[in-house]
Amino acid sequence: MPYDEALARFEPVLGLETHVELGTASKMFCGCKTTFGAPPNTQVCPTCLAFPGALPVANAAAIESTIRIGLALNCSIAEWCRMARKNYFYPDMPKNYQISQYDEPLCFDGYLDVEIDGRTVRVEIERVHLEEDTGKSTHVGGATGRIQGADYSIVDYNRAGIPLVEIVTKPIEGTDRLAPEVAKAYATELREIMRSLGVSDVRMEEGSMRCDVNVSLMPRGSSEWGTRTETKNVNSLRSVERAVHSEIERQAAILADGGRIVQETRHFHEDTGQTTPGRSKEEAQDYRYFPEPDLVPIAPDPAWVATLKEALPELPSVKRRRLQAEWRLSDLDMQAMYNAEAIDLVEATIAAGAPAADARKWWMGELARRANETGSALADLPITPEQIARVTELVASGALNDKLAREVLEGVLAGEGSPDEVVETRGLKIVNDEGELSAIVDEVIAGNADAAEKVRSGKIAAAGALVGGVMKASRGKADAARARALILEKLGVSE
Ligand SMILES: [Zn+2]
Question: In this structure, are 171 and 105 located in the same domain?
Protein backbone atom coordinates (compact mmCIF):
# COMPACT_ATOMS: atom_id res chain seq x y z
CA MET A 1 0.00 0.00 0.00
CA PRO A 2 1.39 3.44 -0.85
CA TYR A 3 2.84 5.26 2.13
CA ASP A 4 0.34 8.14 2.08
CA GLU A 5 -2.63 5.81 2.04
CA ALA A 6 -1.12 3.68 4.82
CA LEU A 7 -0.68 6.80 6.95
CA ALA A 8 -4.22 7.98 6.24
CA ARG A 9 -5.60 4.75 7.72
CA PHE A 10 -3.07 3.76 10.36
CA GLU A 11 -0.83 5.29 12.96
CA PRO A 12 2.65 3.77 13.42
CA VAL A 13 4.15 2.90 16.79
CA LEU A 14 7.92 2.48 16.81
CA GLY A 15 10.43 0.85 19.09
CA LEU A 16 14.17 0.73 18.64
CA GLU A 17 16.66 -1.66 20.17
CA THR A 18 20.22 -0.69 19.44
CA HIS A 19 23.26 -2.83 20.10
CA VAL A 20 26.56 -1.06 20.51
CA GLU A 21 29.82 -2.98 20.79
CA LEU A 22 31.99 -1.27 23.36
CA GLY A 23 35.52 -0.40 22.38
CA THR A 24 37.15 -1.94 25.44
CA ALA A 25 40.61 -3.47 24.99
CA SER A 26 39.45 -6.84 26.31
CA LYS A 27 36.25 -8.87 26.25
CA MET A 28 33.41 -8.69 28.77
CA PHE A 29 34.29 -11.70 30.90
CA CYS A 30 37.85 -12.65 29.92
CA GLY A 31 41.13 -11.00 28.91
CA CYS A 32 40.90 -11.76 25.18
CA LYS A 33 41.58 -8.92 22.76
CA THR A 34 38.77 -7.34 20.76
CA THR A 35 40.59 -6.19 17.60
CA PHE A 36 38.25 -6.09 14.60
CA GLY A 37 39.27 -8.13 11.58
CA ALA A 38 41.79 -10.41 13.32
CA PRO A 39 42.16 -13.90 11.74
CA PRO A 40 39.24 -16.14 12.81
CA ASN A 41 39.43 -17.76 16.23
CA THR A 42 42.70 -16.10 17.24
CA GLN A 43 41.14 -14.00 20.03
CA VAL A 44 39.64 -16.76 22.14
CA CYS A 45 40.34 -18.49 25.44
CA PRO A 46 38.77 -21.18 27.65
CA THR A 47 36.33 -18.64 29.16
CA CYS A 48 34.85 -17.23 25.95
CA LEU A 49 34.87 -20.71 24.41
CA ALA A 50 33.03 -22.00 27.49
CA PHE A 51 35.43 -24.78 28.45
CA PRO A 52 34.22 -26.66 31.53
CA GLY A 53 35.24 -24.93 34.73
CA ALA A 54 36.21 -21.62 33.14
CA LEU A 55 34.65 -18.74 35.06
CA PRO A 56 33.74 -15.21 33.95
CA VAL A 57 35.08 -12.03 35.56
CA ALA A 58 33.27 -8.80 34.68
CA ASN A 59 35.16 -6.09 32.79
CA ALA A 60 35.10 -2.93 34.94
CA ALA A 61 35.75 -0.64 31.96
CA ALA A 62 32.65 -2.02 30.23
CA ILE A 63 30.52 -1.35 33.29
CA GLU A 64 31.89 2.18 33.48
CA SER A 65 31.16 2.79 29.79
CA THR A 66 27.61 1.49 30.16
CA ILE A 67 26.96 3.79 33.10
CA ARG A 68 28.33 6.75 31.14
CA ILE A 69 26.00 5.89 28.24
CA GLY A 70 23.10 5.68 30.68
CA LEU A 71 23.97 9.05 32.17
CA ALA A 72 24.28 10.66 28.75
CA LEU A 73 20.79 9.31 27.99
CA ASN A 74 19.38 10.84 31.19
CA CYS A 75 18.86 7.43 32.81
CA SER A 76 18.73 6.45 36.45
CA ILE A 77 21.59 4.15 37.40
CA ALA A 78 20.86 1.01 39.40
CA GLU A 79 22.56 0.92 42.78
CA TRP A 80 22.48 -2.85 42.68
CA CYS A 81 21.78 -5.19 39.80
CA ARG A 82 22.68 -8.59 38.48
CA MET A 83 23.59 -10.16 35.19
CA ALA A 84 21.20 -12.86 33.98
CA ARG A 85 21.49 -15.98 31.89
CA LYS A 86 19.46 -15.97 28.70
CA ASN A 87 19.17 -19.58 27.64
CA TYR A 88 19.02 -20.52 24.00
CA PHE A 89 21.01 -22.52 21.51
CA TYR A 90 22.92 -20.72 18.82
CA PRO A 91 25.93 -22.25 17.03
CA ASP A 92 27.97 -19.06 17.37
CA MET A 93 27.40 -18.92 21.13
CA PRO A 94 29.64 -21.51 22.79
CA LYS A 95 28.00 -21.52 26.22
CA ASN A 96 24.51 -22.08 24.82
CA TYR A 97 23.42 -19.17 26.93
CA GLN A 98 24.19 -15.50 26.77
CA ILE A 99 25.13 -13.53 29.85
CA SER A 100 22.85 -10.53 29.66
CA GLN A 101 20.60 -8.54 31.94
CA TYR A 102 16.91 -9.14 32.36
CA ASP A 103 14.76 -7.44 34.97
CA GLU A 104 17.64 -5.57 36.61
CA PRO A 105 19.21 -3.37 33.92
CA LEU A 106 22.17 -1.20 34.88
CA CYS A 107 20.47 1.96 33.56
CA PHE A 108 16.77 2.72 33.13
CA ASP A 109 14.12 5.41 32.49
CA GLY A 110 15.98 7.93 30.38
CA TYR A 111 15.30 9.89 27.23
CA LEU A 112 16.93 11.27 24.13
CA ASP A 113 15.62 14.36 22.34
CA VAL A 114 15.95 14.36 18.57
CA GLU A 115 15.21 17.20 16.19
CA ILE A 116 13.27 16.80 12.99
CA ASP A 117 12.47 19.83 10.84
CA GLY A 118 12.95 22.15 13.79
CA ARG A 119 10.61 20.08 15.94
CA THR A 120 11.91 18.25 19.02
CA VAL A 121 10.76 14.67 19.51
CA ARG A 122 11.49 13.11 22.89
CA VAL A 123 12.29 9.42 22.66
CA GLU A 124 11.92 7.74 26.03
CA ILE A 125 14.57 5.18 26.90
CA GLU A 126 13.33 2.14 28.79
CA ARG A 127 16.67 0.58 29.61
CA VAL A 128 20.37 0.40 28.86
CA HIS A 129 21.83 -2.95 29.73
CA LEU A 130 25.07 -4.82 29.35
CA GLU A 131 25.56 -8.22 27.72
CA GLU A 132 28.07 -10.17 25.67
CA ASP A 133 28.16 -10.49 21.91
CA THR A 134 27.97 -13.81 20.07
CA GLY A 135 30.46 -15.16 17.56
CA LYS A 136 29.88 -14.85 13.85
CA SER A 137 28.67 -17.58 11.50
CA THR A 138 29.48 -17.56 7.81
CA HIS A 139 27.30 -19.66 5.54
CA VAL A 140 29.25 -20.81 2.53
CA GLY A 141 28.06 -21.93 -0.89
CA GLY A 142 24.59 -20.37 -1.11
CA ALA A 143 23.63 -17.45 -3.27
CA THR A 144 22.44 -15.19 -0.49
CA GLY A 145 24.97 -15.77 2.30
CA ARG A 146 22.10 -17.00 4.47
CA ILE A 147 21.92 -20.47 5.93
CA GLN A 148 19.20 -21.52 3.47
CA GLY A 149 20.90 -23.05 0.45
CA ALA A 150 24.38 -23.00 1.99
CA ASP A 151 26.68 -26.03 1.64
CA TYR A 152 28.25 -25.60 5.05
CA SER A 153 28.80 -23.02 7.76
CA ILE A 154 31.90 -21.92 9.62
CA VAL A 155 32.06 -19.99 12.83
CA ASP A 156 34.46 -17.38 14.21
CA TYR A 157 34.42 -16.87 17.98
CA ASN A 158 36.57 -13.74 18.05
CA ARG A 159 33.47 -11.65 18.63
CA ALA A 160 32.03 -14.02 21.25
CA GLY A 161 32.16 -12.22 24.58
CA ILE A 162 32.80 -8.69 23.34
CA PRO A 163 30.86 -6.33 25.61
CA LEU A 164 27.65 -5.21 24.04
CA VAL A 165 25.34 -2.51 25.30
CA GLU A 166 21.69 -2.72 24.39
CA ILE A 167 19.66 0.47 24.41
CA VAL A 168 15.91 -0.06 24.31
CA THR A 169 13.37 2.68 23.75
CA LYS A 170 9.87 2.75 25.11
CA PRO A 171 7.18 2.58 22.42
CA ILE A 172 7.39 5.78 20.40
CA GLU A 173 3.92 7.10 19.53
CA GLY A 174 2.69 10.20 17.76
CA THR A 175 5.46 10.44 15.17
CA ASP A 176 2.88 9.88 12.44
CA ARG A 177 4.27 10.26 8.93
CA LEU A 178 7.65 11.27 10.33
CA ALA A 179 8.14 7.80 11.85
CA PRO A 180 10.93 6.77 9.42
CA GLU A 181 12.76 10.07 9.92
CA VAL A 182 12.40 9.88 13.70
CA ALA A 183 13.89 6.39 13.69
CA LYS A 184 16.82 7.56 11.61
CA ALA A 185 17.33 10.75 13.62
CA TYR A 186 17.31 8.75 16.85
CA ALA A 187 19.90 6.28 15.58
CA THR A 188 22.02 9.16 14.25
CA GLU A 189 21.95 11.05 17.53
CA LEU A 190 22.66 7.89 19.49
CA ARG A 191 25.71 7.28 17.34
CA GLU A 192 26.86 10.86 17.90
CA ILE A 193 26.56 10.37 21.64
CA MET A 194 28.55 7.14 21.56
CA ARG A 195 31.25 8.94 19.59
CA SER A 196 31.39 11.88 21.95
CA LEU A 197 31.68 9.48 24.90
CA GLY A 198 34.43 7.57 23.10
CA VAL A 199 32.92 4.24 24.18
CA SER A 200 32.64 2.66 20.74
CA ASP A 201 33.73 3.29 17.18
CA VAL A 202 30.04 2.81 16.22
CA ARG A 203 30.82 1.66 12.71
CA MET A 204 27.49 0.38 11.47
CA GLU A 205 29.04 -1.21 8.39
CA GLU A 206 31.33 -3.28 10.65
CA GLY A 207 28.45 -4.16 12.93
CA SER A 208 29.71 -2.33 16.01
CA MET A 209 26.34 -0.56 16.07
CA ARG A 210 23.21 -2.27 14.81
CA CYS A 211 19.54 -1.47 15.17
CA ASP A 212 16.51 -3.68 15.59
CA VAL A 213 13.50 -1.76 14.39
CA ASN A 214 10.07 -2.55 15.85
CA VAL A 215 7.03 -1.34 13.98
CA SER A 216 3.34 -1.84 14.61
CA LEU A 217 0.28 -0.08 13.28
CA MET A 218 -2.97 0.89 14.91
CA PRO A 219 -6.07 2.02 13.03
CA ARG A 220 -6.67 5.78 13.19
CA GLY A 221 -8.85 6.59 16.16
CA SER A 222 -7.82 3.47 18.05
CA SER A 223 -5.45 3.52 20.98
CA GLU A 224 -4.79 -0.20 20.98
CA TRP A 225 -1.38 -1.18 19.67
CA GLY A 226 -1.19 -3.66 16.86
CA THR A 227 1.10 -6.68 16.65
CA ARG A 228 4.68 -5.62 16.04
CA THR A 229 7.44 -7.01 13.92
CA GLU A 230 11.12 -6.66 14.67
CA THR A 231 13.45 -6.04 11.75
CA LYS A 232 16.84 -7.26 12.96
CA ASN A 233 20.36 -5.90 12.63
CA VAL A 234 19.73 -3.03 10.30
CA ASN A 235 23.22 -1.76 9.61
CA SER A 236 23.03 1.73 8.21
CA LEU A 237 21.18 4.89 9.21
CA ARG A 238 19.55 5.15 5.81
CA SER A 239 18.36 1.54 6.11
CA VAL A 240 16.77 2.26 9.49
CA GLU A 241 14.63 4.87 7.77
CA ARG A 242 13.83 2.64 4.81
CA ALA A 243 13.01 -0.37 6.99
CA VAL A 244 10.40 1.61 8.93
CA HIS A 245 8.96 2.98 5.71
CA SER A 246 8.60 -0.40 4.04
CA GLU A 247 7.24 -2.10 7.18
CA ILE A 248 4.50 0.54 7.45
CA GLU A 249 3.49 -0.05 3.85
CA ARG A 250 3.62 -3.83 4.16
CA GLN A 251 1.68 -4.05 7.41
CA ALA A 252 -0.95 -1.55 6.23
CA ALA A 253 -1.64 -3.65 3.13
CA ILE A 254 -2.14 -6.80 5.23
CA LEU A 255 -4.36 -5.08 7.80
CA ALA A 256 -6.45 -3.31 5.15
CA ASP A 257 -7.12 -6.72 3.58
CA GLY A 258 -8.43 -7.99 6.90
CA GLY A 259 -5.27 -10.02 7.55
CA ARG A 260 -3.27 -10.17 10.76
CA ILE A 261 0.36 -9.33 11.41
CA VAL A 262 2.54 -12.21 12.56
CA GLN A 263 4.77 -11.40 15.50
CA GLU A 264 8.16 -12.25 14.08
CA THR A 265 11.64 -11.04 13.35
CA ARG A 266 12.31 -9.84 9.84
CA HIS A 267 15.37 -9.12 7.69
CA PHE A 268 15.90 -5.92 5.76
CA HIS A 269 17.34 -6.16 2.27
CA GLU A 270 19.43 -3.22 1.12
CA ASP A 271 18.90 -4.02 -2.55
CA THR A 272 15.10 -4.15 -2.59
CA GLY A 273 14.38 -1.92 0.40
CA GLN A 274 11.96 -4.62 1.62
CA THR A 275 11.83 -6.88 4.66
CA THR A 276 11.35 -10.65 4.59
CA PRO A 277 10.31 -12.93 7.45
CA GLY A 278 12.86 -14.39 9.85
CA ARG A 279 11.86 -16.51 12.79
CA SER A 280 8.70 -16.22 14.84
CA LYS A 281 9.45 -14.10 17.85
CA GLU A 282 10.10 -15.72 21.21
CA GLU A 283 8.60 -14.40 24.41
CA ALA A 284 10.85 -13.50 27.31
CA GLN A 285 9.70 -16.55 29.27
CA ASP A 286 11.00 -18.83 26.52
CA TYR A 287 14.54 -17.87 27.47
CA ARG A 288 14.25 -19.14 31.06
CA TYR A 289 16.20 -16.18 32.39
CA PHE A 290 17.76 -16.56 35.84
CA PRO A 291 20.38 -14.56 37.74
CA GLU A 292 23.89 -15.48 36.60
CA PRO A 293 25.36 -17.59 39.41
CA ASP A 294 29.00 -17.19 38.33
CA LEU A 295 29.11 -13.41 38.78
CA VAL A 296 28.73 -11.17 41.79
CA PRO A 297 26.07 -8.43 41.58
CA ILE A 298 27.06 -5.02 40.24
CA ALA A 299 26.71 -2.29 42.87
CA PRO A 300 28.15 0.98 41.57
CA ASP A 301 28.99 3.42 44.36
CA PRO A 302 26.69 6.48 43.92
CA ALA A 303 29.67 8.76 44.60
CA TRP A 304 31.55 7.14 41.70
CA VAL A 305 28.48 7.49 39.46
CA ALA A 306 28.31 11.18 40.43
CA THR A 307 31.96 11.57 39.42
CA LEU A 308 31.27 9.92 36.08
CA LYS A 309 28.31 12.24 35.52
CA GLU A 310 30.41 15.26 36.38
CA ALA A 311 33.05 14.19 33.87
CA LEU A 312 30.70 13.59 30.91
CA PRO A 313 31.80 15.47 27.80
CA GLU A 314 29.65 18.20 26.28
CA LEU A 315 26.88 16.26 24.55
CA PRO A 316 26.53 16.55 20.77
CA SER A 317 23.24 18.48 20.73
CA VAL A 318 24.58 21.03 23.24
CA LYS A 319 27.80 21.33 21.31
CA ARG A 320 25.94 21.86 18.03
CA ARG A 321 23.94 24.72 19.51
CA ARG A 322 27.12 26.32 20.86
CA LEU A 323 29.02 25.97 17.58
CA GLN A 324 26.07 27.22 15.54
CA ALA A 325 26.07 30.40 17.63
CA GLU A 326 29.86 30.72 17.44
CA TRP A 327 29.95 30.19 13.70
CA ARG A 328 26.81 32.29 13.16
CA LEU A 329 25.16 29.74 10.93
CA SER A 330 21.52 29.38 9.97
CA ASP A 331 19.61 26.27 11.10
CA LEU A 332 19.72 25.10 7.50
CA ASP A 333 23.51 25.42 7.15
CA MET A 334 24.07 23.71 10.48
CA GLN A 335 21.70 20.91 9.52
CA ALA A 336 23.60 20.44 6.26
CA MET A 337 26.87 20.11 8.16
CA TYR A 338 25.29 17.67 10.59
CA ASN A 339 23.95 15.56 7.73
CA ALA A 340 27.35 15.59 6.05
CA GLU A 341 29.02 14.62 9.36
CA ALA A 342 31.28 17.61 8.93
CA ILE A 343 30.88 19.37 12.27
CA ASP A 344 33.75 17.70 14.14
CA LEU A 345 36.03 18.02 11.13
CA VAL A 346 35.29 21.72 10.71
CA GLU A 347 35.77 22.25 14.41
CA ALA A 348 39.15 20.50 14.33
CA THR A 349 40.18 22.50 11.27
CA ILE A 350 39.37 25.75 13.06
CA ALA A 351 41.25 24.52 16.11
CA ALA A 352 44.24 23.97 13.81
CA GLY A 353 44.15 27.65 12.87
CA ALA A 354 41.80 27.98 9.89
CA PRO A 355 39.17 30.75 9.73
CA ALA A 356 35.68 29.29 10.34
CA ALA A 357 34.31 30.25 6.93
CA ASP A 358 37.25 28.68 5.09
CA ALA A 359 37.13 25.49 7.14
CA ARG A 360 33.47 25.13 6.35
CA LYS A 361 33.92 26.02 2.68
CA TRP A 362 36.50 23.30 2.05
CA TRP A 363 34.78 20.51 3.96
CA MET A 364 31.30 21.27 2.67
CA GLY A 365 32.46 22.08 -0.88
CA GLU A 366 35.41 20.41 -2.50
CA LEU A 367 35.85 17.63 0.07
CA ALA A 368 32.15 16.80 0.34
CA ARG A 369 32.13 16.49 -3.43
CA ARG A 370 35.12 14.14 -3.28
CA ALA A 371 33.56 12.05 -0.54
CA ASN A 372 30.36 11.85 -2.54
CA GLU A 373 32.21 10.69 -5.65
CA THR A 374 34.02 7.92 -3.83
CA GLY A 375 31.05 7.02 -1.65
CA SER A 376 33.10 7.44 1.52
CA ALA A 377 32.46 9.37 4.70
CA LEU A 378 34.15 12.77 5.00
CA ALA A 379 36.10 11.55 7.99
CA ASP A 380 37.50 8.66 5.96
CA LEU A 381 39.08 10.88 3.30
CA PRO A 382 42.87 10.62 3.52
CA ILE A 383 43.30 14.23 4.59
CA THR A 384 43.44 15.77 8.06
CA PRO A 385 41.94 18.95 9.52
CA GLU A 386 45.52 20.15 10.11
CA GLN A 387 46.29 19.78 6.41
CA ILE A 388 43.17 21.74 5.46
CA ALA A 389 44.21 24.44 7.92
CA ARG A 390 47.64 24.60 6.28
CA VAL A 391 46.05 25.03 2.85
CA THR A 392 43.89 27.92 4.09
CA GLU A 393 47.02 29.47 5.55
CA LEU A 394 48.80 29.23 2.20
CA VAL A 395 45.81 30.87 0.51
CA ALA A 396 45.66 33.64 3.12
CA SER A 397 49.36 34.37 2.68
CA GLY A 398 48.91 34.73 -1.07
CA ALA A 399 51.06 31.71 -1.85
CA LEU A 400 48.08 29.87 -3.35
CA ASN A 401 44.82 30.90 -4.95
CA ASP A 402 41.63 28.82 -4.74
CA LYS A 403 42.32 26.96 -7.92
CA LEU A 404 45.83 25.99 -6.83
CA ALA A 405 44.53 25.13 -3.39
CA ARG A 406 42.17 22.64 -4.99
CA GLU A 407 45.12 21.10 -6.79
CA VAL A 408 47.00 20.85 -3.51
CA LEU A 409 44.04 19.06 -1.92
CA GLU A 410 43.93 16.73 -4.88
CA GLY A 411 47.61 15.92 -4.35
CA VAL A 412 47.17 15.30 -0.64
CA LEU A 413 44.15 13.06 -1.32
CA ALA A 414 46.20 11.17 -3.89
CA GLY A 415 48.79 10.40 -1.22
CA GLU A 416 51.48 12.76 -2.50
CA GLY A 417 52.30 14.01 0.98
CA SER A 418 51.61 17.14 3.02
CA PRO A 419 50.26 20.34 1.40
CA ASP A 420 53.76 21.86 1.40
CA GLU A 421 55.21 18.77 -0.23
CA VAL A 422 52.52 18.83 -2.92
CA VAL A 423 53.15 22.55 -3.60
CA GLU A 424 56.84 21.75 -3.96
CA THR A 425 56.63 18.65 -6.13
CA ARG A 426 53.82 19.92 -8.36
CA GLY A 427 55.35 23.40 -8.56
CA LEU A 428 52.11 25.09 -7.52
CA LYS A 429 53.34 28.35 -6.01
CA ILE A 430 51.52 31.41 -7.25
CA VAL A 431 53.49 33.76 -9.53
CA ASN A 432 54.40 36.43 -7.00
CA ASP A 433 57.34 37.81 -8.85
CA GLU A 434 56.25 41.11 -10.45
CA GLY A 435 58.77 40.76 -13.27
CA GLU A 436 57.67 37.28 -14.14
CA LEU A 437 54.00 38.27 -14.15
CA SER A 438 54.77 41.35 -16.25
CA ALA A 439 56.52 39.22 -18.84
CA ILE A 440 53.56 36.85 -19.07
CA VAL A 441 51.16 39.80 -19.46
CA ASP A 442 53.25 41.28 -22.27
CA GLU A 443 53.28 37.95 -24.04
CA VAL A 444 49.50 37.52 -23.73
CA ILE A 445 48.80 41.08 -24.96
CA ALA A 446 51.07 40.51 -27.94
CA GLY A 447 49.31 37.26 -28.78
CA ASN A 448 45.78 38.69 -28.47
CA ALA A 449 45.95 41.90 -30.45
CA ASP A 450 42.20 42.06 -31.09
CA ALA A 451 41.24 41.82 -27.44
CA ALA A 452 43.97 44.27 -26.48
CA GLU A 453 42.70 46.77 -29.05
CA LYS A 454 39.15 46.51 -27.71
CA VAL A 455 40.36 47.22 -24.20
CA ARG A 456 42.38 50.18 -25.40
CA SER A 457 39.26 51.59 -27.06
CA GLY A 458 37.40 51.40 -23.77
CA LYS A 459 35.72 47.98 -23.90
CA ILE A 460 37.06 46.96 -20.54
CA ALA A 461 34.98 43.77 -20.51
CA ALA A 462 37.33 42.40 -23.15
CA ALA A 463 40.09 42.33 -20.52
CA GLY A 464 38.53 39.11 -19.24
CA ALA A 465 39.89 37.20 -22.19
CA LEU A 466 43.38 38.56 -21.51
CA VAL A 467 43.20 37.65 -17.82
CA GLY A 468 42.12 34.19 -18.91
CA GLY A 469 45.14 34.07 -21.19
CA VAL A 470 47.48 35.03 -18.34
CA MET A 471 45.96 32.36 -16.08
CA LYS A 472 46.39 29.80 -18.81
CA ALA A 473 49.95 30.83 -19.61
CA SER A 474 50.86 30.68 -15.92
CA ARG A 475 49.03 27.36 -15.52
CA GLY A 476 46.69 28.93 -12.98
CA LYS A 477 49.48 30.23 -10.82
CA ALA A 478 49.00 33.95 -11.42
CA ASP A 479 47.00 36.18 -9.11
CA ALA A 480 44.04 37.02 -11.35
CA ALA A 481 43.31 40.40 -9.73
CA ARG A 482 46.90 41.57 -10.10
CA ALA A 483 47.11 40.28 -13.64
CA ARG A 484 44.00 42.29 -14.51
CA ALA A 485 45.37 45.46 -12.93
CA LEU A 486 48.60 45.03 -14.82
CA ILE A 487 46.83 44.45 -18.14
CA LEU A 488 44.75 47.62 -17.75
CA GLU A 489 47.81 49.59 -16.74
CA LYS A 490 49.80 48.40 -19.73
CA LEU A 491 46.92 49.20 -22.09
CA GLY A 492 46.57 52.64 -20.58
CA VAL A 493 43.00 52.40 -19.33
CA SER A 494 41.50 52.61 -15.87
CA GLU A 495 38.27 51.13 -14.51
ZN1 LIG B 1 38.39 -15.16 26.01
Answer: yes
